[in-house]
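Fold it.
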Amino acid sequence: MCRIGWKPVAIAVFLCFFFLVRANAQTYVQSQTNAVGSSGNNTATFSAQPSAGDTVVAGVVCYGPSNCTVSSVTDNFSNTYTKIGPTASYGGPTQNVTNVMLYCASGISSGSSFTVTANQSNSGGGDSNLYIAEYSGASCTVDQSASGSLTGGTATTLLQTSSATTTNPSDLLVAVGGSSAGGNATAGSGYHLRQNATPGVAENGGFEDETVASTGSYSASMNMASSTTYWAMVMVALKGSSGSGSPTITSFSPTSGAVGTSVNITGTNFTGATALKFNGTGTSFTVNSSTQITATVPSGATTGTISVSTPSGTGTSSSSFTVTGSGGSIAYVQSQTNAVGSSGNNTATFSASPTAGDTIVAGVVCYGPNVCQITSVTDNFGNPYSQIGPTAMYGGPTTNGTPVALYCASGISSGSSFTVTANQSNSGGGDSNLYIAEYSGASCTVDQSASGSLTGGTATTLLQTSSATTTNSSDLLVAVGGSSAGGNATAGSGYHLRQNATPGVAENGGFEDETVASTGSYSGSMTMASSTTYWAMVMVALKGSSSGGATPTVTSFSPTSGAVGTSVTITGTNLTGAASVKFNGTAATSFTVNSSTQITTTVPSGATTGTISVTTPSGTGTSSTSFTITTSGPTITSVSPTGASDGTTVTISGVNFGSAQGTVTFGSASATVQSWNATTIVTSVPLSLLPSFANIQITTSTGSASNSFPFTVTAPGCPAN
């Protein structure tokens, strides 16, 4: 798009309109590659955690002496990858075949050590290259695709696909190329080479991309350092996601709950959310994907709508979330399991000391050649356990019987190395599983219970109890299942699988729970990995205790000082259900309640030296000492303006820039520095940039890079949006 400072106003208005209504700007975030010089799968791991909701594109180049078959592309966060565009090949047709292809996953779930795997078969001396790239604002919707290849023929340094005419004005073009020779690759005209193969390890080639600004005829190309007669290349034009629009909330579950209740919010365009509020009261939240957020009902919340804000606007629910009384709000704290492959008692020990006054639920699965007898459940602090609900059993009735049962102790005394024991008799070659879980706000008062079992009969993967209709609107459902076979278990609908049995040690099965928000008909269920004909399951609905927990305390934190972004572990008591964590009054944007005595969080932007506080439905606890905020690398705190056209002067403010001039980039484009000091940089938007979203980053003269700060590049005459 050309600059229009001298063009008629009508053209400028058109360009502004075009930019403001275009699909979400597609922005490159990061990439990685891995070359494997032998047969088998190939994995690549991003150096930084991808953002939930973004899109990952994987380029695969795989050689096999007979052929290479790519069965799937997967990652360690269970995102779904689909093949996009054609497969291009060189060599063959039946021997020495190399296949080149692209895969894509959008709206991803994410976490640390994000690893992508190309699952492939190329035995007998194969090799492969895997390229992975993260993009924001992109989808996996293919507009057009093209490919090209050469097997023998005239030697060339140019790898190039055929042309494809796009129908969308702002496509992301991604391309991957493979070659049997040629050395290093350089990007084709208009493209950015994101990753180059490592010559001599596997195949040669690389991965490149380009975001276009208009429809047209496009092809992909890359140039090799030396000639090759065997190569293939694939290009795909991807449409942008709808993520640039304002967020919308379509539903939330549950629809009511007390302070501290976890709420799943469903909608659209949640990526980049900056705030979530319950009837105007802000809370902590986690963006799971572009369509789902998990949040906690904050202290002080009242009945009303839920809103989500992103840089593109605010979306508000059409219905209200009902805030119920906080007394007795039930929360899961921690759990453990132990499998014993021989006869005798079974013990399990919590990794953290339970909070005095909480409730412990124990699930017992015990096999005995002559039927296992569970005499009692005890712990090393003298708390009394009573059986809750029925006993279900598979096998038997007089031999090879495996009873399944639940026990409960409330208002517990506690201390370190808290150990629960299932006292049982199953001599002659028995085995057993013990599951223990801690809850705050729960009682051992049974509302309803149900069970189910199978001894012989039709093989199934589903373990399920009968249904029970609850009379209390906020019950805790706990369920334990045992099976003679089936491998690993997964939780039933609505449940959280807290512990899985270890297949091959004792029985199979697991322990799960769910806190419901209304009365209704409920059952317990879990699904096994493979079929079984012997299983039993018990589900119990427990009422909440009649009083809330004690006020939280903050006893210590580690480390005691750090810069913005530092991970901090907070230790104290009664931390379950925490609604907020603050550093001298500045709220942490996210935190994890590891147990009733520990929270992990990060120092938020804008925090100053002072005390740390934790707020739960029962009150606020504040540390007696201060956390000291330090400065380390350069940090951008603000940019003015936050959006402008190319050539516009921009002032960057922050700390630790240093006195000597470094560099400034807008995305991948370098900017001209007009002035530079330790806290302020004056620069201008690079003339080469088209309208897009480009992160500003500075690098000091000593090589230290700052955080990325979002910036909108507009067409001349357009507002910053």
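DSSP finds one helix and 62 strands in the chain.
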